[in-house]
Design goal:
alpha+beta, Glutaredoxin, 33% helix, binds glutathione, Thioredoxin-like_sf, Glutathione_S-Trfase_N
Amino acid sequence: MKIYVCYGTFPIKGHGHVCRNAHEALLAAGYSPQVVRSYGFGPLPKWLNFAKGRREVRELTGQQWVPVLVADDGEVIQGSGDIIGWAEAHPNPSR
Ligand SMILES: N[C@@H](CCC(=O)N[C@@H](CS)C(=O)NCC(=O)O)C(=O)O
């Protein structure tokens, strides 16, 4: 399992941030996803979002905002709300 995030999963002003929230939901569901830092910034034009992670996000989703989850079966889930919903609906059966 991979989660593409911006620059990390750090809290922002003690409130978390969307990449962190999605990552935390996966941990709470019993997963240890590979974290891929995508760098760049979603609203920027494509040519400024040249990092490998950001390119992979575009290939997977046709857009370049993170967070994006790639589940072990290859399912791609975009957006923190949908990732959190997926984590809650799919607790890791082998934990
Ligand atoms: N509605 C989206 C918002 C995504 C969002 O705001 N992502 C933050 C991640 S820190 C951001 O700044 N994204 C710009 C980017 O992709 O770098 C979600 O909840 O996932």
